[in-house]
Amino acid sequence: MKIERIELLHVRLPLVGRFRTSFGTATDRDTFLLRVVTDAAEGWAEFAGDPDPLYCSEFAASAHLALRDHLVPRVMALGEVTAAMVGQAVEEIKGHRLAKAVLETAILDAELRSYGMSFATYLGSVRARVPAGVSVGIMDSIPELLDAVAGYLGEGYLRIKLKIEPGWDVEPVRAVRTEFGDDLQLQVDANTAYSLTDAEHLRRLDDHGLLLIEQPLAEDDLRGHAALSALVRTPICLDESITSARDAATALALGACRVINVKPARVGGYLEARRIHDLAAASGVPVWCGGMLETGVGRAANLALAALPGFVLPGDTSASSRYYAEDITEPFVLDGGHLNVPDGPGIGVDVLPGPLGRVTVARHDLYPL
Ligand code: NPG
Fold first, then answer.
1. Which terminus of the chain has a lower count of CB atoms within 10 Å, N or C?
2. Which CATH superfamily is domain 121-340 in?
3. pTM for the full predicted model
4. Probe residue for ligand 1, chosen from 13, 30, 55 as the CB with the greatest number of ligand atoms within 8 Å
C-alpha cells in the first residue's frame, strides 16, 4: 500500500455535560482526526489526547509536530507500507505514543478496508457485542452524583466508574453503594491524585466491594503501587503507568497491579494493546478497555479491542450519547447494556461529512507538506 496523502483535521465537539476528573474539567472534546489516503483505500483515526498535557505528557499540538516532523517522514520513507511496519519505523523516536498510535491506526484502517476485513477480525475478537460501563465525573454534591448514576443505570449501563480525588472518595462511594445495592459493579479512578501516605485512607474503600481502584498514585510510581497493593484488599488497576507491554510485564512482576486498563493510544496503538492483552491473558490478569472521550471514530476501534477474550471486565466503552448530542459517525447505541462491535471493513464506521464539517475548526496537510 502506498500512502498518497495524510491530512490532520482539528475538530471540536461540545460535550453534553461537563466532565470533571482529578486533573481537570472538560466541556468539549478538542482533538484531531487523521485521514490517510492510500492507493488502495482511505483510513481514519482519532488522536486520543487533549489540548493540555494534564492526563499525560502529550497534547494535541505536540502530537501535530511529532507527526509532521518526525513520524510521518519516517513512515513515508518506507515506500510500501503496512500497519505492522509502522511501530518499527518510528521506534527510534522516544515517547509520543499517542501520536504514534493515531498514525498506525489510520494506516491500519486503510489497510483493512483495502481487503474488506474488520478491526475485530484482525485483532481476534470473540464477541459480537460488549458490556458497557460508564465513567462518572466528580460532582458538586452527593445528591447530584446519585441522580447521575441513577440516570446511567436507567439507560442500562452495567458498570459504574466513579472519578475520585482527595475529598471526594469514600463518601461518594458509600453513598452510591448504599443507594444502588451490593450487586452494582462499581469501581473508582483517581488519575494519580494520591500518594502512598494516603494508604490508610484508601483502605477505607475496602468496605465497599469495589471491583478495583484505578491509578491511585503517580504514573512513574510502580514501587508505591506495589506497596499500596499489599496494604489494601481492593485490586489496584493501572492506567497511566502502563505505556507498553514491557511496562505491563514489569508492573505485574512487581505486584504493582492486579488489573490493567488497556488504552490503545497510551501504549502506542492497537498492536501493542493486543500484546498487553495477550500477556495479561497468559498471566491470568483481567484487562478492560479504557476510553478518552472518543468520538465514534476512536470508539469503533476500541469496541473491537474490547471484544478480545481477555477483556473480562466491562470497559469505558459507553454509548455516543454519553458525551455527544451529535457524533461524527453513526452513533453507538446501548442495547441491553451492551454495544455492538462494528463488523464492517476497517473500524467499521464512516465519518459523516455533515457532522464532520460542523465540528472541523482547521485542516493541515502532513503529507505532502
Ligand atoms: O468514557 O471515554 C470515556 C472516558 C472514560 O474516564 C474516562 N477517561 O482517566 O480514563 C480516564 C479518563 C480520561 C478522560 C483520560 C480524558 C484522558 C482524557
1. C
2. Enolase-like C-terminal domain (3.20.20.120)
3. 0.97
4. 55
